[in-house]
Amino acid sequence: MAWSWRYEGANGDPVDGPGESFPSQADAESWIGQTWRDLATSGVTTVVLVEDDRVDYRMSLQPPAE
User: Fold this and answer.
1) 34 HSE (CA, 13 A, CB side)
2) pTM, full prediction
3) Is the dihedral of CA 36, 37, 40, 41 positive or negative?
4) Rounded CA gap, 50 and 38, in Å?
5) C-alpha 7: how far from its chain's center?
6) Which of 13, 17, 30, 63 maximizes the CB count within 10 A of its CB?
7) Which residues on neighbouring strands pair with residue 3, listed in sequence order?
């Protein structure tokens, strides 16, 4: 099973991002932990963790609202 990330912009539409594939969820999460700032700077506001075709979860890259 392969894990990967999908990327969304502020309006929820897909945006381009790295096409990395990972052998485990832990590897995918470790990678996003190292690269999320660069993704956010490039216009990605939400990432979606996908295992094959199944969405595992979505996560915002935006700071929490105060």
Assistant:
1) 6
2) 0.90
3) negative
4) 20
5) 5
6) 17
7) 22, 51
Q: Where are the alpha helices (DSSP H) in 1-66?
A: 25-41
State the CB neighbour count (10 A cutoff) for residue 47: 22
Residue recorded with tokens 């790295």: 18
- Report the residue count for the chain: 66
Three-state DSSP state, 9:
coil
* pLDDT tens-digit profile, the chain (66 residues): 899 999 999 999 999 999 999 999 999 999 999 999 999 999 999 999 999 989 999 999 998 876
Instruction: Fill in the amino acid letter for 21.
Output: S
